[in-house]
Amino acid sequence: MTLSSVKPILSFQSAGVSLGGRPILRAVELAVGPGEAVGIAGPNGSGKTTLVRAAATLVSIDQGSLSVLGSDTGAPDLTAVRRSIGLIGHQPASIPELTLFENLDHIARLGGFDRSRVTRALEVVGLGEAAGRKVEVCSFGMKRRLEIAHLLLARPRLLLLDEAASGLDDAARDLIGALVDSVLARDGGCLVVSHDRGQLETLTDRVLTLAHGTLKAAQ
Amino acid sequence: MTFWRQALEIARVDLTVESRVGNTIRITLPFAVVALMVFPLALGLQLGVVSATGLGVFWAIGILFGMQVALRQSASDTRERRDLQALLGVDPAARFVGRLFSGGLLMVGFLLTMLVAMAVLFDPDIPQGGWPVLVLSTLLVAIGLTELGTLAGEITTGLSHRTVLASLIVAPLALPLVIGASQSVEALQRDTGILAWILLLIASDLALAVAGVALARPLEKATR
Fold first, then answer.
1. Can you give B129-150 as a three-state secondary structure string?
2. Mean pLDDT, to the nearest integer, of B29-58?
3. Which residues of A touch B78 (CB under 8 A)?
4. What number is the ipTM of this complex?
5. Of A69, B77, B106, B129, which has the fewest CB atoms closer than 10 Å, so is most exposed?
6. In angstroms, what separates the C-alpha of A88 from chain B's closest C-alpha?
């Protein structure tokens, strides 16, 4: 099997995204292969979050094409593809009024994950003792760890991290590193965006730069 | 996870959150009951007038505050939660149905409590056999209002000023519910037959349910 015959996990081809009539991404060419982690650096407002949301099939492209896990994102039903995507975005999606355990159990029920692994996943990310604490009284770092625990349960094939390590302590950053490694070990792919180039160089195989919606090789 | 399990799980968590926050039970309901209490005082304690206006006041206040209950439920969704549900493979129609279960249960409890409060405060002149009709109308209005609020919440997702827009959508669409509810008891008092009004309520509920389920997926796509 040649390298070119391996189907990419994620492939943007001349893809463009406009939001509210304003172009955010322009003619993006990007491929993430199996076992590969790609970093995207760029200043605030450069389109990094839109790139991640498009890769997660949460924003539609209006030019070019986008293929995620071998499926074109214009397909009528993306449910199966979406269930293989793991996303850590800017803001945690947890429900403040529920405890950490209840949040993860809710996710496990909705996602059809093995609920018997919920307690163990919380322990792995260091939330075992705090499992009964409501999310509204948890720190940002704890909410991030909860999201990592979710992805440990979900075992995604495509991992998307949007400034996921910002504001975290070293131990939590190590957890994110381990999460990336586990996805790559399963021949999955990772797309990591951050304005912190040093962090990207640690986590990924290559780093590209996004500026004004246009992707360039890192300088 | 099946459609119905997803719907039930969403309803379960909505009700758990409501039991802890108490938006409906501890905030909206007391205000609504106070509003009911103010009316007899404003009418000058003329018992005949108070008794005659009880039902009208119940429907006016019940539907106004009921809209708040319905809209508050759907306004609690954040973009991050919707994204998470999309990535977990939650069917948007299952989310709509789940919201109907939880919101409907709260709305039924809310309106029935208001009905009891109205009966105590206004001692309305209800004709024989009127109470079952009134309870049935209340249940049908509760279901319809929940459907409207949930549908309006889905339509306005991601828009700025969504609560204002949702209210503007709900108000005119609630008219068949208001008319059906008020006229069913009125018809009983006039002895002119209530079937047409009850059928109007049932038809409104069914139409809103079908619209909500059918529109859930296109609306989810349109907001991406």
1. CHHHHHHHHHHHHHHHHHHHHH
2. 83
3. 91, 93
4. 0.90
5. B129
6. 10
